[in-house]
Design brief:
Elements (H helix, E strand, L loop, with lengths): L6 H9 L6 E3 L7 H6 L6 H14 L4 E8 L6 H14 L3 E6 L17 H25 L4 E10 L4 E5 L11 E4 L9 E10 L2 E6 L1
Parallel strand pairs: 1-2, 2-3, 6-8
Antiparallel strand pairs: 4-5, 4-7, 5-6, 7-8
Length: 206
């Protein structure tokens, strides 16, 4: 969580070569009222300050976050605040889910429950916005060189696939690449990116 990220952690990530510059930081929401209701010791300004610190220390960092829409009491204004936050920050990776009450939790008994259709609609809007951001970031990666760890050969696509340090296993996209030479699983290779496909990148081994 953002409140658990301090200067020591940031410095360790920046200087330790064994640590990838990827962090999963579940923000959940950005409205101060919603964060207070959730019992989070965090505010929008503190979240923004933490993200700024991370990116200033490591311009190449990949930040993933998780958001929740339709938390009990969430107004349209608070949801719009969340939308603007997503547009402003442009997270490299983002997942958004409609709030679902869990049996036995305090939120289950909160008043002002948001109708399911509104919860789901809001989550879809956030993910549509993130797709636009992701497309833009992928376009910016064209012609770049990326270090990729090979995870296997896709016999349907007839190419290898793997991930960079910005792609968590089974969560983020993959990098598909062609190679004239045989590539072993676990081998690190340099790939030049020349195309995109949804959340995935496509290239060729250099």
């Amino acid at each position: 969580y953002p409140e658990e990220i301090d200067n020591d952690l940031i410095e360790a990530m920046r200087t330790e070569p064994k640590v990838v510059r990827y962090i999963d930081m579940p923000v959940q929401h950005v409205s101060d009222g919603i964060l207070h209701m959730m019992g989070r010791n965090m505010t929008e300004s503190k979240i923004l300050k933490t993200i700024k610190k991370l990116r200033n220390a490591m311009p190449d960092i990949c930040i993933r976050t998780t958001l929740i829409t339709g938390i009990p009491g969430e107004t349209e204004e608070q949801f719009e605040e969340l939308c603007e936050f997503v547009k402003e920050i442009r997270f490299e990776r983002l997942g958004c889910f409609a709030y679902s009450p869990e049996e036995g939790t305090p939120a289950e008994k909160f008043e002002d429950q948001v109708p399911l259709k509104d919860r789901e609609r809001r989550a879809e809007i956030i993910m549509e916005e993130q797709m636009i951001i992701s497309d833009s970031l992928n376009e910016a990666a064209l012609d770049s060189e990326v270090e990729v760890v090979c995870e296997g050969f896709d016999r349907y696509a007839e190419c290898y696939y793997g991930r960079s340090q910005s792609d968590a296993p089974e969560i983020d996209g993959k990098i598909f690449f062609l190679s004239e030479d045989k590539v072993r699983v676990g081998e690190y290779v340099k790939v030049k990116i020349d195309d995109t496909m949804d959340y995935d990148l496509i290239g060729s081994k250099m």
